[in-house]
Amino acid sequence: MKSCARYWCNKDSHCKMSILPYGRQCIDEDDIQAVNEVLRSDFLTTGPTVPAFEKTVARFCGAKEGVAVSSGTAALHAAMAAFDVGPGDEVLVPAMTFAATANCVLYTGATPVFVDVCRETMLIDPTDVRRRFTSRTKGVVGVDYAGQPCDWNALREVVDGRDAFLLADACHSIGGAVSEGTVGTLADATVFSFHPVKQVATGEGGMVVTDEPAIAESVRRFRNHGISTELRQREKAATWYYEMVELGFNYRMTDIQAALGISQMRKLSGFLERRAAIAKQYDAAFAGSPVSPLEMRTDVNSAWHLYVVRVPHRDEVFSYLRSVGIGVQVHYIPVHLHPYYRKQMGVGPGLCPVAEQAYEEILSLPLFPAMKDDDVSRVVDEVMKAVEG
Ligand SMILES: *Cc1c(COP(=O)(O)O)cnc(C)c1O
Fold first, then answer.
1. Residue 147 near residue 174 (C-beta atoms within 8 A)
2. Local structure of residue 356 (DSSP, 8 states)
3. Which residue's CA is minimally distant from atom 15 of ligand 1?
4. Which residue from 50, 387, 295, 332 is spatially nearest to 172, judged by alpha carbons?
5. Which of 25, 87, 269, 285 is most buried when burial is the number of CB atoms within 10 A of its CB?
6. What is the number of the ligand 1 atom nearest to the C-alpha of 172?
7. 198 included as an active-site residue
8. Do 296 and 276 form a contact (C-beta atoms < 8 A)?
9. Is residue 267 packed enough to be buried (19+ CB in 10 Å), middle (13-18) or exposed (0-12)?
10. pTM of whole model > 0.70?
11. How many CB atoms lie within 10 A of CB 300?
């Protein structure tokens, strides 16, 4: 059997991945073994591995509770329900994010209100949050863009005394921290994604972590059709009786996914270190060049989901890099510019000028733990060639 020359590909025979991706999971034999064990066990879902994964993640970020669900998007949706968001409410969301951050507001019948971001960091701008706050604002969702935590202190000041929630969309930032604490403890509730491009992979998967037992309880109900007790509780109490008390969904995570998650969590610190080292290598290489990385706030530890730079002639640079097998990406098209939002909400260009301008200039470079130093150098060389040519 011919071995694949590209180490980031797991295949032995032929590699279909001819391009260095911007992000990719890191799976080893321990992960495969962990999944195998669940496959041989009694429970593929609603078993003991899901709560074990929840405990692992909650403990890692210093939160009291974790509730695993089927995706980051499901976690956002469940969090909206836990905060009782519904028709007539407004929820403030940054314009520069993945569509799911705003979609979850629409799922509830409420209205997402787009907030602009800070130019240097792409993080939600607390001043603009204050400006767009109304009597209908039910809460604020901050996105820890690229892995850097938002200015949660400033956001807390805006909502203080206003009876509004703070939700962290931390799908980029598991393992990140600021001087006040770890991601997972900085907002009223925090949402993670375990999509393969994120720091911890379960295939699909997500989690809500919180210190509020009522929020955790609500998410547990919501992921299970709105049923007020879970199967394992009923088994313990030897009863068949259950009540559906609200309209929920089947957003459960399987034990197969949770086993992979537990195994991945053991390696998270190493993953984060490697991501930070790659980012440092990029930083050093681009210093003083026309390639400008995002800025870091003081006293933050980024979880480095993405390495985002601004480059001149972005579209040409993008095309060139793709043509030489470097899988750059653009994160993100501002949500209010998507056709659905334009049509459905009557929003469009001009609403969040900083995000719109940034969208023309940004590029995400490959960043994942299995990248070798040589790959990083190759990306740097090609990026420099592209911006200079
Ligand atoms: C990945 C991501 C999501 C959605 O997570 P899924 O697990 O893919 O559903 C939501 N918000 C942000 C900012 C993300 O990056």
1. no
2. H
3. 171
4. 332
5. 25
6. 15
7. yes
8. no
9. middle
10. yes
11. 20
